[in-house]
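Any chance you could type out a protein's amino acid sequence plus the matching backbone structure tokens because I've never seen that pairing?

——
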Amino acid sequence: MATKKKKTAAKKKRKKTSRKKTVLKRELMKTLIGVGVLLLLVAATGLVANHYLSEKAPVSQKGEKIVRQPVTIPEKKRTWHKDKARIKARQQPLRYEIYPENEIPRQRPAVAPLPPSKDQKPRVAIIIDDLGYDRVMAYKFIELDADLTFSILPFSTFQNEISRKARNKGAEVMLHLPMEPKEFPKIHPGPGALLSSMPPDELIRQLNADLAAIPGIKGVNNHMGSRLTMDSDRMNQIFSVLKRRNLFFIDSRTTSGTLSIQSARLFKVPFAQRDVFLDHVVDAAHIREQIDLLMELAESHGEAVGIGHPHRMTYEVLRDRIPMIQKKADLVPASRIAHPLG
């Protein structure tokens, strides 16, 4: 009887163990099936992504995928892109000026006061213009111990840094306003240029943009402009804006036919003109001769305006000659020589 009970108990135990093993097998099978399904989903996702990327990325002849560069869409297209001449201008190397054949005006308009008395020094203004693209050279001129005037091109690379440094030094800042020369479109005066083909509204709009580009300006002188300064209507439009903004104008006098003095008289805008280009020939001896000529004109007329450019040679000669200039004349900002006419 005892043996029979033992056999029955052993049989029940085997059945119980068998059921546990069956349950474990089922759970293991479910787990394996779940993992398998997950792997299949991952593989399928990879195939789909690879197929999608293969369609998007072109393939070279060697079987290599060609990565496309992202396309940047500008927020707003600038209107000057429509002007092919202006686009071409951006590809041209920077040109400081187009000098007239007769570099010194033969007769100075009756703008200056009477020559000073023996105990009074003449006044001399020296403008360094075409600034904005060579920051290092601009800083050298600004650091000179002299009251120079700095004229900066609009939309130039370092316009804000140069303007800020000059004003922090207490120097006077001007806008070097690009205007159409006779050589246009072969030679373009650069970004922000005023052109004779512009309707009045467009010209005024561009002028206001140029004036706003350089912070803290006190006046304006023209960059190139041998054609535009001979256009009376265009100059009247420009001077009407200068009058409203209380700015003076220095005529760089790139042509003997300039009509800017007539517009200055009409609108009663403080006005002066360039007497001497200091460095239209970039040679130390020539620059010294031009400085001497500037001093002679100042003594004769009571004041004179010289214009130089950011050449290293100009800087070195000025650095050496400034003590002489300051001894013989009062070196003043350009605004001190710009007078209302009429």
User: Anything to note?
Assistant: The mean pLDDT is 82. The chain has two domains: 1-68, 79-336. The chain has nine helices and nine strands.
